[in-house]
Known about the structure:
Elements: H1 2-32, H2 39-56, H3 64-90, H4 97-119, E1 124-125, E2 135-138, E3 141-144, H5 145-167, H6 169-179, H7 181-186, H8 191-217, E4 219-220, H9 224-239, H10 244-264, H11 269-284
Antiparallel strand pairs: 1-4, 2-3
Amino acid sequence: MSTIVLMTVTGLGLAALYFLVASGLSLVFGLADVLNFAHGLFLSVGAYATWWAAGNLPGAGSDGWGFVLAVAFGVLAGTVVAALVELVMIRPLYSRTIEQVLVTVGLSLAGVAALQAGFGADPRPFPRPSWTQQVVTIAEARVPLDRLLLIVAALVVLGLLLAFLRWTRYGLIIRAGVENREMVTALGIDVRKAFTLVFAIGGAAAALAGALSGVYFGSVSPTSGASLLIFAFIVVVIGGMGSVSGSAIAAVAVGLLQQFVNYYGTSGAGDICVVALLAVVLLWRPAGLAGKAATA
C-alpha cells in the first residue's frame, strides 16, 4: 500500500510538471494556431534564471523567501522571453504554418546552443530549499515534500488560469478566440494583444515548471526543456487543443501511467504506454478528451 501511495504522489508530481508546460502550449495553439517548438526554451530560461538568481541576485537564495525571490526572477525572465519571441519572431508569421515551425524549431536549437555556450553542457546542481528534501508520512508512505510542492503549484496555476479565462476581459477574448478567432476579429477586437498575452502566460507557466523541475530532478541542464516538451505535446493532444482543464486531466493520466508502468514494468515501458495512450485517444476522439468532436 505504501508503494502505491508513493508512486501515485510521484506520478502526480510529474503530471504537475507536464501540466505547467502544456497549459501555455495548449492556449498558444488553440488561440494563435502556432505550434511552438520553442516552448521548451522558456522552461530552460526559467530554470537557469532561477539557478543564477539564487546565487547572484541580492536577497535571493536557496531557502525561504530568498528562494521565492529567485523563482519569481526566473518566472519573470521566462515571461519576457516568451513575449519577445511572439512580438519579434512569431507575429510576422501568423497564417504561415511552415515558416512558424521552421522558426520555432530553429529557435529551440539555437536556445539550447546558447545555454550550452553560456553555462556549459553538463547539468548543474540546482539550489533546492532544504525543506523540499525532507519527507512526510502519508498512509505509511514516506513522500518527499518536493512532490507535494509541484502538485500544489500546479493546482494554484490551474485555479488562476481558470479564473482568468472565466472572469477577466482578456480571458473572455482568449476563450472566444479559441472557439472562433475570425468572429472575434470581425467584432473589431484586436486579438494580437491577446496573442502576446497568451505567449507571456505560457512563458510564465513554463518558466515556473523549469524552476520546479530543478527542485524535482536536483539539477538543471540546457536540454531539460526539450525533454519535457515532448510529453507536454502529448498531454496537449490528449487533453484537447486550447483546453486548460483538458490538459490537466491528460497530464494526470500521462504522469500516473508513466510512473506506474516504469516502476512495475521494464525501464522505458512507461513511455511506450504513453504513446499508445495517445494513439488510442486520437483514434477514439481525434479532437482530444476536452476538444470538440469534428462534425460533418
